[in-house]
From TrEMBL:
Pfam families to which the protein is assigned, alphabetical: F5_F8_type_C_2
Domain of life according to the entry: Eukaryota
GO MF term list: fucose binding; metal ion binding
Organism: Pinctada imbricata
The protein's name in its UniProt record: F-type lectin
InterPro entries per the UniProt record, alphabetical: BG_Antigen-Binding_Lectin, FA58C, FTP1, Galactose-bd-like_sf
Lineage, highest ranks first: Eukaryota, Metazoa, Spiralia, Lophotrochozoa, Mollusca
GO terms classed as biological process: regulation of cellular defense response; regulation of complement activation, lectin pathway
Occurrences of domain F5/8 type C (ranges): 37-192
Signal peptide (UniProt feature, chain positions): 1-19
Function text: Acts as a defensive agent. Recognizes blood group fucosylated oligosaccharides including A, B, H and Lewis B-type antigens. Does not recognize Lewis A antigen and has low affinity for monovalent haptens.
Length: 192
């Protein structure tokens, strides 16, 4: 029923745009029908793209952070081990508003962010984390969500973005308090 409605709407739209000053020929009708089918295929293709399988877009992408105590890339190495001695957690030094971000390489639809918190020590350090998204211009003005915390040991924090959030860069930043250390053992950006 939905398809039939779309077909009729698109067909009518094409008929209006290409209004006839004469009786339409069979060629005109076939031509319009072809354009209508083509439009529908594009609509279906877009819908399919929106509903495709989610994958971790951050895996082994370029990463950056405000200061470095443990390298930022450890958060996208595909290893979620939350024990510091495993050597797979990224961390900043202590500062007021530390941040970490990943470059996904190109713009994607982003559904949610999953953050693995440190498990062997100081999980409460993860608090008041703003997750924002930016396009090519690196203006992090699209808010995905906030984790107020404080985090629990080895917690998998999930921040769900508003529907159809799109961007290339995803940033985590602690926005409240002072003497903050941002430590993340894995950051997965789930999207398409
Ligand atoms: Ca890791």
């Amino acid at each position: 029923m939905y398809l039939l409605t779309v077909l009729l709407l698109v067909f009518c739209a094409h008929s209006n745009v290409h209004g006839y000053e004469r009786e339409p020929t069979t060629y005109d009708l076939i031509s319009n029908l072809t354009r209508s089918v083509s439009s529908i295929l594009h609509i279906l293709k877009d819908e399919k793209a929106d509903n495709g399988p989610l994958k971790n877009l951050a895996y082994k992408r370029e990463t950056y952070q405000s200061t470095t105590f443990a390298t930022s890339g450890k958060a996208v190495d595909g290893i979620s081990n939350s024990q510091w001695v495993a050597g797979s957690c990224a961390s900043t030094h202590s500062e007021q508003h530390p941040y970490w971000y990943v470059d996904l390489g190109k713009e994607h639809i982003i559904e949610r962010i999953r953050i693995t918190n440190r498990g062997d020590c100081c999980p409460e350090r993860l608090h008041d984390v703003d997750v924002t998204v930016a396009g090519h211009d690196k203006r992090f003005d699209a808010v995905c969500g906030t984790f107020s915390g404080p985090g629990k040991a080895s917690e998998k924090v999930v921040v769900q973005c508003p529907k159809r959030t799109k961007g290339r860069y995803v940033r985590l930043q602690i926005t409240k308090g002072s003497n903050n250390v941002l430590t993340v053992c894995e950051v997965e950006v789930m999207g398409r």
